[in-house]
From TrEMBL, chains A, B, C, D:
Binding site residues for Mg(2+) 1: E233, E269, D297, D340
EC number in record: 5.3.1.5
Similarity comment: Belongs to the xylose isomerase family.
Catalytic activities: alpha-D-xylose = alpha-D-xylulofuranose
Name assigned to this protein: Xylose isomerase
Superkingdom, taxonomy of origin: Bacteria
Amino acid sequence: MSADYFAPFDTIRFEGPESTNDLAYRWYDKDRVVMGKRMEEHLRFAVCFWHTFCWPGSDVFGAGTFNRPWHAGPNDAARATAKREAALAFVEKLDVPFYCFHDVDVMADAEDAGSFRSSFAEAVDHLEELQGKHGRQLLWGTANLFSHPRYMAGAATNPDPEVYAWAAMQVRDCLEATHRLGGANYVLWGGREGYDTLLNTEIGIEQENFGRLLSLVVEHKHRIGFKGAILIEPKPHEPTKHQYDFDTQTVYAFLKRFGLENEVKVNIEANHATLSGHTFEHEIAMARALGIFGSIDANRGDPQNGWDTDQFPNSVEETTLAMIEIIRAGGFTTGGFNFDAKVRRQSIDATDLFHGHIGGIDTIARALLRAAAIIEDGQLDAFRQERYAGWRGETGKAIHAPEATLASVAELAIQANRAPEPRSGRQEWLENLVNRF
Amino acid sequence: MSADYFAPFDTIRFEGPESTNDLAYRWYDKDRVVMGKRMEEHLRFAVCFWHTFCWPGSDVFGAGTFNRPWHAGPNDAARATAKREAALAFVEKLDVPFYCFHDVDVMADAEDAGSFRSSFAEAVDHLEELQGKHGRQLLWGTANLFSHPRYMAGAATNPDPEVYAWAAMQVRDCLEATHRLGGANYVLWGGREGYDTLLNTEIGIEQENFGRLLSLVVEHKHRIGFKGAILIEPKPHEPTKHQYDFDTQTVYAFLKRFGLENEVKVNIEANHATLSGHTFEHEIAMARALGIFGSIDANRGDPQNGWDTDQFPNSVEETTLAMIEIIRAGGFTTGGFNFDAKVRRQSIDATDLFHGHIGGIDTIARALLRAAAIIEDGQLDAFRQERYAGWRGETGKAIHAPEATLASVAELAIQANRAPEPRSGRQEWLENLVNRF
Amino acid sequence: MSADYFAPFDTIRFEGPESTNDLAYRWYDKDRVVMGKRMEEHLRFAVCFWHTFCWPGSDVFGAGTFNRPWHAGPNDAARATAKREAALAFVEKLDVPFYCFHDVDVMADAEDAGSFRSSFAEAVDHLEELQGKHGRQLLWGTANLFSHPRYMAGAATNPDPEVYAWAAMQVRDCLEATHRLGGANYVLWGGREGYDTLLNTEIGIEQENFGRLLSLVVEHKHRIGFKGAILIEPKPHEPTKHQYDFDTQTVYAFLKRFGLENEVKVNIEANHATLSGHTFEHEIAMARALGIFGSIDANRGDPQNGWDTDQFPNSVEETTLAMIEIIRAGGFTTGGFNFDAKVRRQSIDATDLFHGHIGGIDTIARALLRAAAIIEDGQLDAFRQERYAGWRGETGKAIHAPEATLASVAELAIQANRAPEPRSGRQEWLENLVNRF
Amino acid sequence: MSADYFAPFDTIRFEGPESTNDLAYRWYDKDRVVMGKRMEEHLRFAVCFWHTFCWPGSDVFGAGTFNRPWHAGPNDAARATAKREAALAFVEKLDVPFYCFHDVDVMADAEDAGSFRSSFAEAVDHLEELQGKHGRQLLWGTANLFSHPRYMAGAATNPDPEVYAWAAMQVRDCLEATHRLGGANYVLWGGREGYDTLLNTEIGIEQENFGRLLSLVVEHKHRIGFKGAILIEPKPHEPTKHQYDFDTQTVYAFLKRFGLENEVKVNIEANHATLSGHTFEHEIAMARALGIFGSIDANRGDPQNGWDTDQFPNSVEETTLAMIEIIRAGGFTTGGFNFDAKVRRQSIDATDLFHGHIGGIDTIARALLRAAAIIEDGQLDAFRQERYAGWRGETGKAIHAPEATLASVAELAIQANRAPEPRSGRQEWLENLVNRF
């Protein structure tokens, strides 16, 4: 029944840019080799459970609009089973390798700790079976520590240690499940780790507790032999007024403070980047510079709307700039492109789920081709190298010399006593150059 | 002539809330003791050179509107001298203890290194004399590393090491001048330390160079025996698209990375806070939590305008929230409230300069009284303490125990196997409580 | 049972600024006469059904946190009855005169047209009885044309005329019910009148249809003899990407286009104002200038969050500026202050509902006192009058003369041939003046 | 000398997408026929004086960085002459048909009315000669009513009628000059028509005066026989806190109020659109729906920066969406694409001026080709038509019938008594469709 939902659709295949088939890839050719790697290995696409299989199409101002068959089962357990089957079937139809989940996405509801754990364990058993059946893999798992009312004041940053312990329970089980399912990463998104008002908040206590949980997670990961990366996903606001994991540099500050900068990386989401006042590519470039680039949540925001709209990426231009930074960062190791994106509330048909993902996948695939062409062309990087050439010259070396002091550097200017030569930054030319590809 | 500009004005005195004199303080009573300290010592007000004495009232869309007599001198040297005299006379008229300057604010223009240094040296001599004459002190000095065309691509982050050396020269001289003038702090605002486009920028190189300069400055400070604090002023955007010192946590990340977190603090500006997506009080609270709270640039932005409007603070409500955090941080040590604020372009008269500063000073003074009353009342802090009381109980201690693991914490939840008790966050009650004072 | 929820609370009474009773008014003294009118008549407070009695404390990222007894009844009809009883009991406890509702807020769910109408009719009967029992009145009614999935693409702007007819049915019934219940106004908020993407939208058709519905509503109002005002509530975004009723001037353009500017007014919401790039007071001032000021939705946004946070007003300073404009507009005739505000998701107790409303009411009452004092003082208005005095002089009259032409006005400048005298705008002095009260 | 500045550059020619010549058009092929019109006629490109020839590369935080030879002449008159020569020479080198100017851009400074007028008159004589020499035309002229200190409180909305008269003088002369030079339009941008604070502002008086000036301008246009369009350029903020011409709908409200909606159109700027909370294409679509679409200022903003960055357009994707709306509006009649864009402050070379314009021109030309292909393909418009098909059916006709009432429309729903059929909005499919071209 639920599985039948996607039965009318064939597996999505590459047909090339000239195809007029709405249900084909025009740019994503998984076996095409780009810069020495197959596209599938470069991009490591994943479909998420929450937006695509759990969300009913509701928003703050209205009820769900989607009539997914797996939402209509006779009881919660049956609905959860149907949802898992539908999800993995869909991922196979898209012919992308990965999926992602929160614990509560894949399981039947349960209130007490014992039932919660057993319900989740059953779900994991089923997922393992479905992974085999459909030939799909897990990009990452994560525990949902924000939807249940118990988390209204945070999980690791909750004033109540009982809530903290619940969170630890979920994280342990989900990390172990991720390990068992062969997940490539484990993600922590601090959904309500932040505050609504400073008036009732002790930032100091909350951040110490948050840091402690992260340390325990890292320690547990090593204990159980999980080889995947631990990832934190930055977000500046929403649902709380202020989220502690504001952006990549804030996360880095946090990691440094707790000595975890070599243990934890970031999962960067495009829409979170723009909500924090940065471009998508900035966040990737900064993560690269700080050595903490991990994975990507591929979606886009709406520049006119001040909340997380989680739309499928459709700008090749913007994604190309992000892709250049990903390539510079060496590409993904354990990470990938997870579609943390949802079809619009009016896009109520099964076919819309395909259009959303196909559009996003093709946008990113095309951006990869453009970015690779730009990098292989070399002019962009050559200009950048030339721009900083002075640092390889005499003055640059004198400044970088270990024995240099403020006074010795100041003396360089006094001795030279001339105006530095102004050089154009060539922004317009560089923008034109990028547009050429 | 220039000095005469303020001659019609008497020294501004405290006359109490009922006064209808526009040129009197209604709340700032410098000798009134609040929480054990005189108001003057609490607030440590400073007037800035740049907005109040250098800026002619121009903006991007129009020419200067102010006809200050010190802008009309026969030559640049005469204008600089008149400006310094006017400035210190004004600070005395306001009866606040401090002023602040950029090197180029106080001196005659000069293009080559030698003339630049001697012009600045003359200015410093004169300032020293004026400090004595008017009985005023220097809160902080700073080098302007952003206005001259040579800095169009940054100072410490410039691709050209010659520019870097110029910056080092200015910083050394200005730090030494600040030391000689008895300045309480030395500030670095990275005006153009950032980028306009990632296409021409190597973040990695730029940040390494920036970190290096900061290390050299710290080392030089100790070498010359300067006891004041070195302060970085965060700002997210403007003039560049992205400024490296985005906000307090970004600065902390930077300091941690270069091992400078115990050597450098932040100078927080209210308008920069809001432009970076934070409240003013957030930035102070975060600096306190990270141990890097230094000083304040007191101004406000316009919530409808996306640039730095640098207006005088006029909200007692908002400033009270900031003041609570300052008191919690232990108040200022070397820092103070510098008015990095400018009268509006239409406020062309000498009296407007007084109204701007008087309004700002009274707003902050009144906020101090309210904040002190709230803290002395104790209900706010008592609620916060009670909210986190669980962490002093059994579960909290078990989580914090050095031997705790993710598994041991998870087991706490499994053993308890009950829903944590939901407790109201009481935001509305807390807001009402604050409004009571 | 539901009614018992508020039994522990006494009716809220005025106790004056010195009271330390959290459940008393400190500024709202309903019988106090301000500028010739009782406070209760000035402010005309209303409590809304939706946020306070319908919303369970859910958000996009999590489930409801409130355990209101009226949400736990055995069936939908019982729950609706209990909700109505609780609501009117609460309004009486607050001792404010009005309440507001959407049709679906007060009734049991129903899918087909017949049951929908009869369910609503029963609810209206009950409300009429409760109004009498509790001595409360209806400030305004409105039809919810956005929550049901049928409205996902709009109501009056839906591409499907069947949906439009449904909307007309709801509006007719709700307008007639409002009339019968003695409502002072009828409101239209175009919750989904807008678009998510221009790609599938014909603005021309949608706006024509929207204008037509409004015309039909106005005609029907006169037909049934409803004397209250018809009000449109502007909002720029959310839930749709772009809402047609963007702000007051956009609504005015719309009204003018369909010849309705003398028939329809605006219901201005503070948070919608700020989301559209304006201050709250701007929207009121503009509505006054255009002759369409109607009523107020009293809430506030969060300046750091880009969505409608609908918080209770707690800034006396901001509300004072709005109140000055309301007084200038002549105060309310049929309008009032409706609390379209919700307690925070963590504020889960009955007492929090009281704190939210008491805080909002006192904030507004205090703002009224300040605004009245400022206006009675007269300096603010005198300055404004003086500033435009030139328009009452010779040059002003010559420009305003009916026979003036561009050439004749140009000649005034040529003849005078002198620089106009610059005059300070005195913004800082005016801000200080306002802070004095 | 100044003319020599561009001597090293050949006239820019179309060389096709494969060209690697940085100084050639890759998409703008002026004689290529698209949808029945030559590209040159479609796009009607214009170069502006102010950003490209007047601005020295300064910003609020720093001095000019450009060393244009025409800024270095011996006196103001010589500099103005050289600037005019350089400008028209540059426009010819770009091989685009039009230029635009403010009065003060093209003339030597002058303080009194007589000298101002004669200086401008001389400039106009020279421009007429240069137009002939270089074979270029004027897209539009405009008077700068915002840069001079006299306009600090507005021009038409100034509290001082003497300033108003000055403005009228400039507008009359500039309108007549535009007429004489064969200009296709006359533009009014209300640079400081707005307010910094409501505290000192009477919106009512200011808007009445503004409306009056516009009426006088329209009357004068007809009097002198000027056949071009009068255009208002909306902008929401900056330099003032609030600008009266906030956006297209606000301008429409204003025009309707003063009965000018058939006389005046809008000149839409992309960056102003986004600052006002709209997309560029929204503003065009809205102007089309209201019948006031006139012309375009082609630039882009920076989504992370809250001020007018005035960058050259470089997004083909975004411009395509705007171009679709322009084509739907019937294309330009008198209007065109004016580059109200400036090279970055670091782009200091003559060649950067070419790169900026070439990039912008190619971006727009390519967008035209894509938009034309999308419209000629027809799927997008077919989907839209089908989406609204119901309005051509029975229910739609019944609603639109002149005799329809709210009651008769409501009865349609009651009679049908069934749930309207939900239909997908297909946003993702439409986005994919657009990306296909």
